[in-house]
Write a structure and sequence with these properties.
Layout (H helix, E strand, L loop, with lengths): L11 H14 L7 H14 L3 E5 L2 H14 L8 E5 L4 H9 L3 E5 L10 H8 L6 E5 L8 H11 L2 E5 L7 E2 L2 E2 L6 E5 L12 E5 L2 H11 L9 H10 L5 H5 L13 H10 L3 H20 L13 E3 L4 E5 L3 H11 L5 E2 L10 H6 L1 H6 L3 H9 E5 L6 H12 L1
Parallel strand pairs: 2-3, 2-4, 4-5, 5-8
Antiparallel strand pairs: 1-9, 6-7, 6-10, 8-9, 11-13, 12-13
Helix pairs in contact: 1-10, 2-10, 3-4, 3-7, 11-16
Bound molecules: pyridoxal-5'-phosphate.
Length: 393
């Protein structure tokens, strides 16, 4: 069986040994210096001023929307567009935090929203922000999306949980909006078992993300910012500051285990991405160009595709069902993420008006006719040949 995930970490045994020694010798395992260290390293890797580490990618999404609400960049009942094909916890925080979640259809050949699909929504609905998902390492015309957002005064935020390391026009995905989220869940590009982060260049947003991450207090802010917020609230007592809660938050803190794992996995990230990219480049032409059984996918505009799974969209549902049977007990496969999110039970329950009014016909094709298989950096030559035979033979 070719499984989606082959190991918890890259360089599994060595990492597990280092982790055991770390746990045995660590003085502190709750949030501390290892988390701070990984934040600095990841911000540098991504090319962003700030990285705020969280306990999952879902938490990163939740914290980001809450932080934008707290600093007033998004207000109650504002309308937020999201990629119709995405993960549940990209959309759920939008609904949970009192905002209107509007699906934007994707393009079949990039699996991503485009300036055209955004314009289609803008014909009937104005958008305050767009929470764009770079699905499975791909993107559409991001430059065009950025220009459109600037023109229409739409705040752009990026869910990069499936695209860490993809490069478009010389810049990593996750560097095109005010902030971007990442997941470090097992099987994603970089594993800390569970984990996630928000990256941004915006100082105010980064400070608020740290407040949102932990109870609404100032405990994990740099000291200059602690002084500023205490002064702003006329708080002169260090004792009282310990339990002063400035704004709405959660407890989404990672542990030192997350931080430590991040610091020892990050040095492998180029190797991981390179191996996955090589697998993708080897299989993609046979899947997307040499057969008419599937919809072709275009990725020439992307400098480097970094994905952890390879999607296939069949021309018919029957074809997809045949592939599902062919993979049985042979290759582990999944639907393409959440498919058309607007047709998921939670969305129909909480946003019935938009689940009906936006058609998302391409997202529906992905839902009914798509699947993905794992693109693991440890895939062997024999496994690559088997994948080729099943999907492109
Ligand atoms: C696009 C997207 N956003 C968010 C998440 C949530 O990340 P996590 O599993 O770390 O909570 C995922 C998970 O796979 C995802 O694919």
């Amino acid at each position: 069986m070719i499984s989606l995930t082959k190991s918890t970490f890259y360089n599994d045994v060595d990492t597990a040994q280092k982790l055991s020694s770390f746990v045995l010798s660590a003085k502190q395992l709750s949030f501390g210096e290892q988390c701070n260290k990984f934040e600095e390293q990841f911000a540098q890797y991504q090319g962003r001023k700030h990285c705020v580490l969280m306990n999952s990618g879902s938490s990163a999404n939740l914290a980001l929307i809450q932080a934008l609400r707290n600093i007033g960049k998004i207000k109650l009942n504002d309308t937020i567009g999201f990629s119709a094909v995405t993960w549940s916890t990209n959309v759920m925080p939008i609904i949970q935090l009192g905002l209107a979640a509007v699906p934007i259809d994707i393009e079949l050949d990039t699996l991503n929203i485009s300036p055209q699909t955004i314009r289609k929504v803008l014909e009937t609905t104005s958008l305050k922000a767009i929470f764009l998902t770079h699905l499975l390492g791909f993107c559409d015309d991001l430059q065009g999306i950025r220009e459109l957002c600037a023109q229409e005064k739409i705040l752009l935020i990026e869910d990069t949980c499936e695209a860490l390391g993809s490069v478009y026009h010389g810049n990593k995905l996750g560097n095109f909006g005010i902030a971007s989220t990442f997941s470090f869940y097992v099987g994603h590009h970089l594993s800390t078992i569970e984990g996630g982060a928000v990256c941004t260049d915006d100082d105010e947003l980064a400070t608020m993300l740290r407040i949102v991450r932990a109870h609404g207090w100032d405990r994990n802010l740099p000291s200059a910012e602690q002084s500023a917020i205490r002064q702003q609230h006329s708080l002169n007592s260090i004792f009282e500051s310990r339990y002063t809660f400035y704004d709405l938050g959660f407890n989404l803190r990672p542990t030192e285990i997350t931080g430590y794992l991040g610091t020892i996995q990050l040095p492998y990230i180029h190797e991981i991405i390179q191996k996955r990219n090589q697998n993708f480049i080897r299989l993609a032409p046979a899947i997307y160009e040499q057969t008419d059984k599937y919809y072709p996918l275009h990725y020439d505009h992307i400098d480097l595709v970094s994905n952890f799974a390879i999607p296939i969209v069949c021309r018919t549902r029957k074809q997809r069902d045949l592939l599902v049977s062919a993979c049985n007990e042979r290759i582990e496969i999944r639907p393409i993420v959440g498919g058309n999110i607007a047709s998921q039970p939670f969305f129909c329950k909480y946003v019935p008006e938009f689940s009906q009014s936006f058609k998302n016909s391409n997202a529906s094709i992905i839902h009914d006719q798509g699947l993905y298989f794992g693109n693991n950096p440890l895939l062997t030559e024999i496994e690559l040949q088997e994948l080729h035979q099943v999907f492109a033979g």
